[in-house]
Design a protein that fits this description.
alpha+beta; 3-stranded antiparallel beta sheet; globular
Length: about 120
C-alpha cells in the first residue's frame, strides 16, 4: 500500500541567479502534481557552494496523498516512463529498509508529462 508520494526538486540556478529559476521549477512541479508546492530555505551554510543558512530558498516540494497521488503515479508509469530511451527499469537498490523508493528524473524526462509537453508544442 502506498501512503504518500513526495516530489522534490533542488533548483541549482536559484543559488546564484535569483528566484526566477525557483518560480519556474515550482510551476512545473505544481503542473505535474496538481498540488501547491512549498519552498525550502537553506538549512546549513556551505561557503564553497555560495549557500547562506536560512537566507535563500533553493528547493520546492509537493506532497501527494490520496487521489492526486494515484493520478501522478498513473501518469508516471503509463506515459512518462515508457518514453524514456535506454531505460532499464527501476533498480533494486533504489529502496531502503523502511520501504521508501527514490527516483531521479532528468529535465528531458519531466518534459514527457502531458502538462509540460503541451507547452513544448506551442
Amino acid at each position: 500500500m502506498i501512503e504518500k508520494v513526495t516530489v522534490h526538486s533542488y533548483v541549482k540556478g536559484a543559488v546564484h541567479s535569483g528566484s526566477a529559476y525557483l518560480h519556474v521549477a515550482g510551476m512545473v512541479v505544481q503542473a505535474i502534481t496538481n498540488v501547491r508546492v512549498q519552498t525550502h530555505k537553506v538549512r546549513t551554510g556551505e561557503a564553497g557552494w555560495g549557500l547562506v543558512k536560512g537566507k535563500q530558498s533553493v528547493s520546492v516540494t509537493a506532497e501527494l496523498k490520496g487521489e492526486d497521488m494515484y493520478h501522478f503515479l498513473a501518469k508516471l508509469v503509463d506515459i512518462v516512463m515508457p518514453r524514456i530511451k535506454d531505460w532499464n527499469g527501476v533498480r533494486a537498490t533504489t529502496g531502503d529498509s523502511s520501504g521508501n523508493l527514490t527516483l531521479g528524473l532528468d529535465p528531458e524526462v519531466v518534459g514527457g508529462f502531458p502538462e509540460i509537453e503541451v507547452n513544448y508544442d506551442s
